[in-house]
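just leaving the lab so this will be short. what follows is a protein written twice so to speak, once as letters and once as structure tokens for the fold. can you read through it and tell me how you think this chain folds. thanks a lot i owe you, the record is right below.

___
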Amino acid sequence: MDVAAYMAELGQQARVASREVARSATAVRNQALLATAEALDAARQALAEANRKDLENGRANGLDEAMLDRLELTPARIDTMIEGLRQVATLPDPVGEITDMTYRPSGIQVGKMRVPLGVIGIIYESRPNVTVEAASLCLKSGNATILRGGSEAIHSNQAIAECLATGLAAAGLPETAVQVVKTTDRAAVGELITMPQYVDVIVPRGGKGLIERISRDARVPVIKHLDGVCHVYIDSHADPEKALKVAVNAKTHRYGTCNTMETLLVDQEVADDMLPLLAAEFAAKGVELRGCERTCAILEGISAATEDDWHEEYLAPILAVRVVDGLDGAIEHINRYSSQHTDSIITENYTRARRFLTEVDSSSVMVNASTRFADGFEYGLGAEIGISTDKIHARGPVGLEGLTSQKYVVFGDGQIRA
């Protein structure tokens, strides 16, 4: 295959399709989403069979358990994909919304209209459910998309692509509005991120190495986060039962996700009481603890944490633990080591909670809640295309609004500038 020619063809088709999708009615796009949901439901056996091939190949190629977990399409995850499509179909359509209308002294009215970005290229690893989530959000927000999943999920992604094509055709939209790259050749990524004439923005979802490469080489704007070094801080004013429940969930609900807690911070005032309780819970879950000097003095037999541990996104049953000197120590640690993804405080002190919300510079900051809630579905976005830790355009879970832009619109009645 001539990869450059193939990707250029996808880009040309996406650009043409993007114009048709942008001018389509909300009801038409919703129809495509609902028809895709029905197609997925009808194709459960085909999806399972395709996913089985990917899992078998993954094990044969030595994929670790975290990657295999991301790759697996369980019945529950298929249910979640279907529910996500239906939820996105019920969300308000941001496209065409006009806001901030004001009269100027000249008599003209000036406002802003929300518009699609155009063509969105999405590059991701392992998780085939991303194919549906990304396609649904791009379509609902009036965009066309080119999806390049990881080679390890090629069979699953192609099976899902057939369902997407069925949904688009049922609504009378071009099947080229959502294109899943068929080649596993890595050169396809290099082409996709260097086609500004066809692609308006790139959204990478995957490991740090992939995202660093795309950020470095892309000639198209990128919406991204590099990694998820998420923290939970247990304050001296925390409810112990609540703290225990939240911390255990934040780490053990799922290990292979970017919103999983990787470092636990405990106020030195409650460390003697809380750490043994936490250690017992984590031991029961098979989580390895790596602690600072003060943590190791309280919990005998755990590994000593190194400087690298405070920077690490384990994506595994390993947790770094540090005893800190109150809220100031927690905020200082987080702002030094956090990847600005998601950080949470457990406290019953409103003033401390407000300080944490104000001073922790992350895309999601939480009070008395598990970091696992940092997710578009949980935030009511229907699904997410990814998490952004950038500070320009979109930040946090990127849903419909994050996949649109605004342009100025002006209404006049024959005014001319004097």
